[in-house]
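To the structural biology subgroup,

Please find below the input and predicted structure for RNA helicase, which we are adding to the shared reference set this quarter. The sequence is reproduced verbatim from the submission form. If anyone notices a discrepancy with their own records, reply to this email rather than editing the shared folder directly, so we keep one authoritative version.
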Amino acid sequence: QVCVVFSEELECWCRALVESVWCRVDGYQLGCFLVDYAKHCSVPSENIRVLAGAFAKFPHRAKKCRLHCTKPLTLHIDYCENTAKIGPAKRWDTAAIEHFRKLVE
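Predicted structure (tokenized):
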């Protein structure tokens, strides 16, 4: 369900999908995907609202997607043989994700 959250970075209310919720000392924090800006952000629970009916029908400007047949790679270092090889990984590392986001922007 799409809701509305206040993004402090953008300084405006945005439509968002809630991806995660975690408890903090001062309340709940929500991990959100802003559907019109293709950004991830975290917002406190007091900055979330229900989306009014008519606005929920507008199509999203951003969509989540995946790269077809692209698998994560990582650098495997063998200290015993003093070699380094690129090979498959279970997950994308943070540096690769940031590099890809910069390329897309």
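Summary notes: The two ends are 27 Å apart (CA to CA). The chain has a mean pLDDT of 86.

Regards,
Lab coordination
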